[in-house]
Design a protein that fits this description.
It comes from Vecturithrix granuli. This protein has 122 residues and is of the alpha+beta class. The protein is built from three helices and five strands.
Length: 122
């Protein structure tokens, strides 16, 4: 994945709204988890934009994103539960692009893609 260009406005918003007072990996993970849980409107349609070694989804595959996976599975990466090809899976959110979602959901998903694209971790 190509490294995303730094966006100072987004960096400040993430620091002040999502990761404020988050000093450990677990605190940062939970900051992201609860931000996404509170902001993203589920379910929504999405397309796989890249293959991932922890997911069976193929590029361009369409799925319905049902919800965030349980928080204990999101301590290293944010996962979502999806329905696709007749099965329910838990896959990394970073490999999905939302289709026709509201503005708040899109911004939250863009925030996560930015975070991952910058190479940041928890």
């Amino acid at each position: 994945m190509k490294r995303v260009k730094r966006d100072d406005h987004r960096e400040e918003r993430i620091d002040m709204e999502i990761l404020v007072d988050a000093y450990t990996e677990e605190e940062r993970a939970m900051g992201w988890y609860y931000y996404l849980a509170d902001t993203v409107k589920f379910p929504f349609k999405a397309q796989c934009i890249q293959e991932h070694h922890k997911s069976p989804l193929e590029e361009h595959e369409m799925v319905e994103v049902l919800d965030l996976s349980p928080e204990n599975t999101c301590l290293r990466e944010i996962y979502v539960d999806v329905q696709g090809n007749g099965q329910q899976l838990s896959v990394p959110l970073a490999q999905l692009k939302a289709i026709s979602v509201d503005e708040d959901t899109q911004e939250a998903l863009d925030d996560w893609h930015y975070w991952v694209g910058r190479g940041y971790g928890f």
